[in-house]
Automatic annotation (TrEMBL):
Cellular compartment(s): Membrane
InterPro entries named in the record: Memb_transporter_dom (IPR049453)
Transmembrane segments: 12-35, 47-64, 71-90, 96-118
Transmembrane keyword on record: yes
Principal location listed in the UniProt entry: membrane
Domain of life: Bacteria
Keyword Transmembrane: yes
Protein name as annotated: FUSC family protein
Occurrences of domain Integral membrane bound transporter (ranges): 33-154
Membrane-related topology note: Multi-pass membrane protein
Length: 365
């Protein structure tokens, strides 16, 4: 129990360290947007300005530039529809329902983005509920939203999180998951343990979330590197993560098939040989080596060499059907990871030792 709590605390602290720049961006940007809207624009209660900073920057992952555009246009649409209708039909419960419905319907027809539609609806509510003459005008609210969005982007550019730390942390999660699945499957083969194989399969089925988190983090990292002058000269380092993104996803998909077939193979008369487990472990170690080399900002040559050594190995003799399928999937994982190191699909496939596949066997590549 104590170990689990300690690990959870470490994970939370690690996440805080990664998100701390975003928190600072939100705090500083919100205060600055409020001051700018009051002092420079002369708006008495510019609530949209700091809110826009929070929506734009946030503390998660996503496309900030798109969020800014959706925020400003959504606010403009909601304010425009709301002002027109309230001036015509007045304010009240049924007027609020009508204004919100029309604003959100119009937004949905123009752009189905959740933020865009939500901003249109919330802006329409504000217009319909604020007493005329006491609240800010529609143009003032649009100016506040734009001010907050611009300051949010400036905060991201001038107080940036490290795009490489974001990408490295989340690719590490993907490659750790891949390594764990291969290691568990290898142990199941060595011990002839179907329960271990079932655990490996269960672990493999949960890995897609890590891939999706990495993809979102990579998009955020690319955006930070694009808008922050502090990282313009280091974009080539981030390109290695872009190269690895699709291949590591494919590698995990092939690992899922491998773990499922490993479980099936342990119920056959000819279970997979221990040599196959050894090859799985070598690929598992190569995945971790790839993780370390990318995090260090180096060309992943050592990981590539390790994978090429596995690719050149002869397959064992006297294998059952499931073992043949496992080898095919492992070869596909090797090809995927070689592509993640920067090799082309053709060169990676050519590095494999030729073999005659049994009828109906699929490599998954």
């Amino acid at each position: 129990m104590g170990t689990r709590l300690s690990d959870h605390v470490k994970e939370r602290l690690s996440t805080f360290g990664l998100m701390a720049p975003s928190i600072a961006q939100c705090a500083v940007g919100a205060a600055l947007a409020w001051v700018v809207a009051i002092e420079l624009l002369g708006h008495p209660s510019p609530f949209f300005a700091p809110i826009s900073v929070l929506v734009c920057v946030g503390v998660g992952f996503g496309q900030r530039l798109r969020r800014v555009s959706e925020l400003v246009v959504g606010v403009s649409l909601g304010v425009g529809v709301g002002d027109l209708l309230v001036a015509w039909i007045g304010s009240g419960p049924w007027q609020i329902a009508l204004v919100v419905a029309l604003a959100m319907t119009t937004a949905m027809l123009l752009n189905s983005g959740a933020l865009f539609v939500a901003q249109a609806g919330s802006s329409a509510v504000l217009v319909a509920t604020l007493v005329p003459g006491e609240g800010a005008g529609g143009l003032d609210r649009m100016a506040d939203a734009l001010t907050g969005g611009v300051i949010g982007i400036a905060a991201v550019a001038l107080l940036p999180a490290s795009p490489f730390a974001l990408a490295a942390k989340h690719l590490s999660g993907v490659l750790d998951a891949l390594s764990t699945v291969l290691e568990q499957a290898a142990e199941a083969i060595e011990k002839r343990d179907a329960d271990l194989a079932a655990e490996a399969l269960e672990q493999a089925r949960t890995t897609q979330a890590a891939v999706e988190e990495f993809e979102a983090a990579l998009e955020t990292s690319k955006e930070i590197a694009l808008i922050s002058p502090l990282h313009w000269r280091r974009r080539a380092r981030l390109a290695r993560y872009e190269t690895a993104a699709v291949p590591v996803d494919l590698a995990l998909r092939n690992a899922r098939v491998l773990s499922r077939r490993t479980l099936a193979s342990l119920g056959e008369a000819s279970p997979p040989p221990a040599a196959l487990a050894e090859a799985m472990r070598e690929v598992s170690e190569a995945a971790l080596l790839l993780q370390l080399e990318l995090a260090a900002g180096r060309e992943p040559t050592l990981a590539r060499q390790a994978l090429l050594a596995v690719a050149a190995r002869e397959r064992p003799d006297g294998l059952g059907f499931s073992a043949h399928v496992i080898i095919a999937q492992l070869r596909s994982v090797v090809v995927d990871l070689l592509q993640a190191t920067g090799m082309t699909n053709e060169d990676a496939a050519a590095a494999l030792t030729p073999l005659d596949e049994p009828s109906g066997q699929s490599t998954g590549s």
